[in-house]
Design a protein that fits this description.
6 strands; alpha+beta; single chain; HIRAN domain-containing protein; two-stranded antiparallel sheet; elongated; 2 domains; 15% strand
């Protein structure tokens, strides 16, 4: 159902009268652009929910299909949804690896060449996101930092005339900041700016971080 009097469209999902959640904002805007209460057929939907134990509680995620027509759900008993945080991290990493392998072995030579430039030691820099996050969670900052710099090298090589992907630089800077290494933090930020087209530097998060560091 929609909610009047709200600036952004809102669509709540109810099952047997109990509200179980809301649609993401971008979907709510598509389903209910005028942000009015949905009535009749417009308010009907099917819901698929998956749950898993998480600590002492239950974590649940779900999908909503509007109307009453046939639905092809993204998950079934043979391909269950990733519910826990750990499962979702593994799924995201597997999806990235699959995308990289498809690009390298696909039928687009230019795309394959671009992805090949992003490889460092046989691993594409995009595949380092979850490992870097996990190393940071485990407190293994030396290993995380080394992986950040390997990814930075790959991002620079694979930038194809654009700015390198900044996330790896941001993570390296954060680690340097935690360790009190201000000069190293500034150096890695300047490295990204040096590899970035001039017109893309001003207003970037990297430039803002460097300005704050040196201000």
């Amino acid at each position: 159902m929609g909610v009047e009097g709200r600036g952004q469209p809102v669509v709540a999902v109810h099952v047997e009268g109990a509200r179980i959640g809301f649609l993401p904002g971008y979907l709510a805007a598509q389903v209910n652009p005028e942000n009015r209460p949905l009535l009749g057929v417009a308010a009907q939907a099917r819901v698929q929910m998956w749950g898993a134990r998480a600590g002492d509680g239950l974590r649940v995620i779900g999908w909503v299909a509007p109307g009453e027509g046939p639905v092809v759900w993204p998950h079934d008993d043979h391909h269950p949804a990733a519910v826990t945080v750990e499962e979702q991290r593994a799924e995201a990493h597997a999806a990235t690896t699959g995308m990289v392998r498809q690009a390298l072995g696909g039928g687009d030579p230019r795309r394959a060449e671009r992805f090949e430039r992003g490889l460092v030691g046989g691993v594409h820099y995009l595949e380092t996101i979850e490992p870097i996050k996990q190393l940071k969670r485990d407190g293994k900052l030396d290993e995380a930092l080394a992986l950040c710099y390997a990814a930075i090298e790959g991002a620079e090589a694979g930038r194809d005339g654009r700015e390198p992907a900044p996330w790896y630089t941001e993570q390296a800077a954060i680690i340097h900041r935690k360790r009190g290494e201000r000069e190293a933090e500034a150096a890695v930020l300047r490295r990204w700016l040096a590899a970035c087209p001039l017109e893309r530097r001003a207003g970037s998060k990297i430039q803002e971080r460097l300005d704050k560091l040196e201000g």
